[in-house]
Amino acid sequence: MKTTLLALALALCAASASPAPTASSLTLIGPYFDGLGDVVEHGMVVVEAGRIRCAGATGRCRPDRGGRVITVDDGLILPGLIDLHVHARSHYLRAFPAAGVTTLRDANNTLETIARLRAQTGAPRIVAAGPMLDGEGSVVAGMSETAAAPGGQPWERIMPVLVTEPGQARTAVEALAERGVGVIKLYEQLPADAFLAATATARRLGLPVMADLGVAGTRGLTAATVDALEAARAGVTTIEHLSGFALAYRNRGGDPHAEILDDALLDRLADEFRATGAAVVPTLTNTVHALASEPPDFAGIPVSAFAEHTLGGWWQQLFATHQREDLRQRSRVDGRFARALLPRLAARGVPIGAGTDTPAAPFTVPGGGLHQELEYLVEFGLSPRQALVAATGGAAALLGCQDLGVIRDGAVADLVVVKGNPLADITHTRRLVWVVMGGEPHQAADLARALR
Questions:
Q1: At a CB cut-off of 8 Å and minimum separation 6, what does 52 contact?
Q2: 391 near 374, Cβ under 8 Å?
Q3: Fewer CB within 10 Å: N-end or C-end of the chain?
């Protein structure tokens, strides 16, 4: 069973997208970033039947005769960008490819919703968790009409799965794996013994695990039953939002509300986390925007005009003045922790992935928000090169999808062409020219116009 499910999960990495691979050939000539940290200055990428047939220096590859050729004179070819934390909905799904985001990891949806999203024309690739697992007091359960324990709703409709003991956790993970999810998501109020059972079951079945343990701005110091180090040691693949770290800090004698944090304790946390092999998806957009007194500047953010029209009312309602100030106060702990901890994790080589928490993060542009996240990753201590890896090859590795997020022979032909050099200025990822999905090239401006 394990072999079958693992093979299915790997197949979903390439197959979970609506566009069929194009039969025509395409050649891109110019410098490219391979998604793992290296640049080929005089490069050529030859695409055939939706895959990269050859990538390397111009002397290594030969284009197909009669195929389309795109020459990149003043820019850089990138792998298609990956957003590792999204709550997708149909009305803004096409904004992701229009912003150069060709793959996303959906963090909580019903299985029937995921099926509809994947069938939508122009959808990005979707690696889905399906419904997350949470405890009986789940905050999310109050937002859903189909929250239930295993067996309480059809698996295609249940969301979230309410779990109170280890047997239910094992049943839920096995059922979701059989239905083809690409990752298991665990939420903050899942009981500790059920959390451990879910993680062990996912590991046995070859599925990665993402965990949101809550942050100070939500319920991370009052409702979570497992801290970041405990979750990582249990086998969680990615800790979302840097959640659970403030709780781990407190559990080891620190005061997360203090204005000055204990450097020695932070170093200890970073060292211990590095030893687990787990990764983090910081979703800094959440923290930065929650702390802001005004909405961010959307100038230059891809598809921001579409997003403001689509989600503007939601933003205004949720972040009215009195609510926003309360959120800012509660989020200050998260801001201090992110600025202190993320550079320590990066310096120790902890894998870091780029994700936005769209649309839950305040003032976040679907698709375009990933470009904001890249800027914040650099602002918080990563190099532009590290930030690009976090949204390409590094992100694909966290998905378990080795043929996404990279430019190399045999990889899926999802590509982005930008003007300028984002390795020198990370904001140049916003200067989109071409988006290639499954080998099919689209001018970025055409994709953006189609949204309107």
A1: 45, 46, 407, 408, 409, 410, 411, 412, 413
A2: yes
A3: C
Residues 395/279, Cβ–Cβ less than 8 Å: no
Distance between CA atoms of 404 and 411, rounded to whole angstroms?
A: 6
Sheet holding 101-106, edge to edge: 81-86, 101-106, 125-128
CA distance linking residue 439 with residue 57, whole number of Å: 20
Cα distance between residue 416 and residue 193, in whole Å: 44
179 CB neighbour count, 10 Å cutoff? 14
**Cβ-based neighbour number of residue 289 at 10 Å:** 23
Q: How far is the C-alpha of 447 from the C-alpha of 100, rounded, in Å? A: 10
H or E, element range at 417 = strand 415-419
Give 382-404 pLDDT, tens digit per residue: 999 999 999 999 999 999 999 99
Per the DSSP assignment, residues forming a β-bridge with 127 are 105
Tens of pLDDT, residues 215-241: 988 887 888 899 999 999 999 999 999
